[in-house]
Specification:
By secondary structure, this protein is α+β, with helices and mostly antiparallel strands. The chain folds into three domains: 60 residues, no CATH class; 30 residues; 142 residues, L,D-transpeptidase catalytic domain-like (Beta Barrel). β2 and β3 form a beta hairpin. The longest helix is centred in the first third of the chain and has 38 residues. It is flat, with a radius of gyration of 43 Å.
């Protein structure tokens, strides 16, 4: 009959599947994941709230990380963004122009004239320092020398310069062992030099200072095969302490190894310029 499918309460029967059982709704995996992680975060937050010590550590960590990130951002902003903004505000890169109106400008002509005179003056000064004659440049910071001939460097290497230490006697006498800086020239050249020991050499060893012509003042073989005088007792000479080349260890003279010393001795003449800086 037609009413056989009607329930006793008057409602329609539930639709069934092929097997006669009611269909089940399929759960959304994304929604389940959100519910799961929400529960995890809530549980974690509750535990952190209960553990005050761990919560304090977390706050400090977040503060430190935020501070570091802020500092890095400021550095990045100063190093990269500020120059970029300045370049954009200035209209980009400098453009070389050949505008005839600019060349007729009086201020422009004046500036060009000043620059030309400065170039001529500096060129003349440079040529006076770097003549065609041989000269040597000594760098006391890096303890290196550079030998030039006809304005071309022909040799470079290590040397030793003043230690900048101070030696003082029980009285008021004292010595500062530094290599003088400036423009000098070779005042004398000698082969097989003999060192005449100054007063500080005896004070340094704790020995009494002998008379000016005492035999103990003269020592052979410690200055190498050659020596060149710069005046005021300063020399360019050899050394028996080759392991210290490249270091500031001398009492003011410039020390070289045997090969470099011979090359410089044969290249420089009396009057050759020596630049020390």
């Amino acid at each position: 009959m037609e009413n056989e499918d009607i329930n006793k309460n008057g409602s329609q029967p539930e639709e069934s599947g092929t097997n006669g059982k009611p269909e089940q709704k399929v759960a959304d995996p994304i929604q389940e994941a959100l519910i799961y992680f929400s529960g995890v975060f809530v549980t974690l937050f509750k535990r952190l709230a209960e553990n005050k010590k761990l919560l304090q550590v977390l706050k400090v960590t977040i503060f430190v990380v935020s501070s570091v990130m802020s500092t890095l951002f400021v550095i990045f902003f100063i190093l990269y963004l500020v120059p970029a903004i300045q370049e954009l505000s200035s209209g980009g890169k400098t453009v070389i122009t050949n505008n005839p109106e600019l060349k007729d400008d009086q201020n422009y002509k004046k500036q060009i004239g000043l620059l030309t005179r400065d170039i001529q003056r500096l060129t003349k000064k440079y040529n006076s320092y770097t003549s065609g004659q041989s000269y040597i440049v000594i760098n006391t910071t890096d303890n290196r020398f550079f030998l030039y001939r006809n304005k071309k460097m022909i040799r470079e290497g290590f040397c030793s310069s003043g230690s900048y230490t101070m030696l003082q006697t029980e009285g008021e006498k004292k010595w500062i062992f530094k290599t003088p800086k400036g423009k000098y020239w070779i005042q004398g050249k000698i082969s097989s030099p003999v060192w005449r020991r100054p007063d500080w050499a005896f004070v340094e060893e704790g020995l009494p200072i002998p008379s000016a012509d005492h035999y103990s003042r003269y020592e052979v073989g410690v200055l190498g095969d050659y020596a060149m005088s710069l005046g005021d007792g300063y020399l360019i000479h050899g050394t028996i302490y080759k392991r210290f080349l490249g270091m500031p260890v001398t009492h003011g003279c410039v020390r070289l190894n045997d090969e470099d010393l011979e090359a410089i001795f044969n290249t420089l003449n009396i009057g050759s310029k020596v630049y020390i800086f």
